[in-house]
Amino acid sequence: MSELLPVVLTSMILAVLSHYTSVYERNGMRYVRREWVFYTVMAVVMILFVGLRRGYNDTYFYRHAYNLMEVGGPVLAGRNWSLSTDPGFEAVNQLLVNLGANDQTFLMFYAAITVGIYLWFIRKYSCNLWLTVFLFIAGGAFTFPLAAIKQCVATAFCLVAVDRALKKKWIPFVLWVALGSLFHAYALIYLITPLLLFTPWTKLTYWMLAAFAAAGVLLQPMMGTIINITTMLGEGYSVEEFSGEGVNPFRLAVVAVPVVLSFMTRKVIAQKNDRTMNLMVNLVTVNAAIMFVALFGTANYFGRLANYFLIFQCITIPWLFSNFDRATRRWLIPAAVVCYVAYFYYANVINQHFDSGFSSVTLREWLSSLV
């Protein structure tokens, strides 16, 4: 992890500095005033790391497709606006090509939007910046944009939609989800947000879990229907593609952590009845439920669908920790750090060696390419 560790350590140091120079209520783990200088520097560091890469996972294929686009192509007029073509993504890329942006600038552009919005959302809703940033990195939400540009920029726009939904601004909410769907059709799943504002671990939670459990068990018999639905969303998958190896159970165990914590503290959650946390707990429950379905299908599709809600894990877990008494938090937080460090090592060294697929340019090389 020699390529990844420097940005991780630098980001964590800046996140800790940002947390401890903020003004917050120690008992309630809520901020009175959030520090912004260290946090902004951290955001720049993380954006540059993502934007300066040359290779990692699907990065090469994105660059190759971008370099095949011809200067002068249509941006809006004459474009196929079917969701199956990811029209927003293609239109923006064509605009970048027409403006003379090289493939490195293309990667930097999306890194700034995606990671920038992710970190804006984290800063706004986190009750513990250093722990949230740590979970953002260790849980995989930070490295996912290195692989899935379309899905992650769509998710970023949907985070803005969630922010609007929490303020009951429903027209902007729908517009932001619609914008996200132009970059990847799966963003439409965020339209369930208004249905997830209920208090967790009421009857609706159990009905939702039962529905997803049934979906997992009945996945293979219902395969034809699922293929038809994904076709309507613009993805031409076959039965064979959906019938591959399921997701690693280890991943399911990790995303189930906040669900277990929320069940353990469900009485406190009900007593506080915080609209924001009610929604986020329900979103991480959906995340875990989709990952459960992925046990019975192809990890590449259901796992990536579940990743649309992965970022809510890093915000929800610190808040759930605050529902425990101080004595419990003293051992619970260190235990969580140790476990997530182990998962981070497993994901980036044992399961898939990060350094073997990663390459990058220096900031100076990218700036020189702009001249």
**Helix-and-strand structural type:** mainly alpha
Q: How many separate domains? A: 2
* Residues in helices, as a percent range: 55-70%
Content of β-strand: under 5%
Average pLDDT level: 89
For this structure, the quaternary state is single chain
Q: Strand order of the main beta sheet, please? A: 1-2
Distance between the termini: 32 Å
Shape: globular
Order of helices and strands: HEEHEHHHHHHHHHHHHHHHHHEH
The parts where pLDDT drops under 50 for at least 5 residues are 238-243
Taking all Cα atoms into account, the compactness measure Rg is 21 Å
For the secondary structure, the number of strands is 4
Number of helices in the DSSP assignment: 20
Describe this structure in words.
The chain is mainly alpha-helical and 371 residues long. The chain contains 20 helices and 4 strands. The strands form 2 sheets. It has a two-stranded antiparallel sheet. The chain has a two-stranded antiparallel sheet with strand order 3-4. A hairpin with a 4-residue loop joins strand 1 and strand 2. Mean pLDDT is 89; it is low at 238-243.
